[in-house]
Amino acid sequence: MSQPPTTPDRPLPGIASPIAAAVLAGGLVYLIWWAMVSTRTGQRIDSLALEGSRVGSWRLDEQADQLLGTVSVPMVGGIIVAVLLIGALRGRWVAAIAAAVAVAGANVTTQVLKMLVFRRDDLLGLGAWNGTNTLPSGHTTVAAAGLVGLMLVVPPWLRSITTALGVVGVSAYGFATLVNHWHRPSDVAAAVLVAAGWGCLAVAAVRVAERRTPLRDVTHRPGATSVILVMLAICGLALSAAAGFMVWNADPEATDRTTAFIAYVGGVAALVGMTCGGLGGLLRLLDATRPMPRAKQRTELGDVTTPAPSPQG
């Protein structure tokens, strides 16, 4: 007797995980501001890292200037056009629009937070720049948001390598702002989280739109890249915590170069760790959002499902 065909149970994932990740990213941005900007200890550690960034920075000043000089408003516009074009060529209009909104939203959010929401009081009495809020970093946001946009629209087989190379690029932009003494490590970490948070919201939008697709491609498994990035994030943040503990009670106005350099190393480790963690987590969410291609659906199920042959008994 013929048995009716059964559709494989391959539902696309829901929006709970990307929404939760976006809320977590936003909460961490606030936590970084509270811990590193609104407390004396946080300002002291950040100030030590800023002083430590002067050690040997003259060797990289020119390269840092050239890299940071590429950031501009036209660059943001170019990134938005690029993600829209890639998404259109792939027929992924929802992903393209979500990516463009994420790029624009991250950059606008950074400027609003820096100019209107967050403030920085000079709790250490250092004067000058210590009383000026620079969190989050605008330059780092541009780089991180650009990578987020590309992650959302590139083909799945390019996503891991794009993310891996992009993490190196975003870290380089963040490091360049430290070398040039434009930003503190907390500014850079917050900027990456702003971009990652908007990327998570974009993933939620894509999942809502693509839940109409009947099947999820279960033959695809998340690659090792996201796991490696998360492991690097744990190592980087652990190193940063250790460095912070070592300089916890140091005085920025009476410290030696070694102590300042330890704080700087901890800041760089936090920068790299947050970049790997935020963008590695986003990659994991994207890897889980992959509907079965139409061609594969036709191959596996056929445009018109036919009954399976009855077993011979």
From TrEMBL:
Residues 95-203 form the Phosphatidic acid phosphatase type 2/haloperoxidase domain. The chain crosses the membrane at residues 12-36, 67-86, 93-117, 161-182, 188-206, 227-248, 260-286. InterPro entries: PAP2/HPO, PAP2/HPO_sf. Pfam families: PAP2 (PF01569). Keywords: Membrane, Transmembrane, Transmembrane helix. SMART domains: acidPPc. SUPFAM superfamilies: Acid phosphatase/Vanadium-dependent haloperoxidase (SSF48317). Residues 294-313 are annotated as: Disordered. This is Putative PAP2 superfamily protein. It comes from Micropruina glycogenica. The lineage of its organism: Bacteria, Bacillati, Actinomycetota, Actinomycetes, Propionibacteriales.
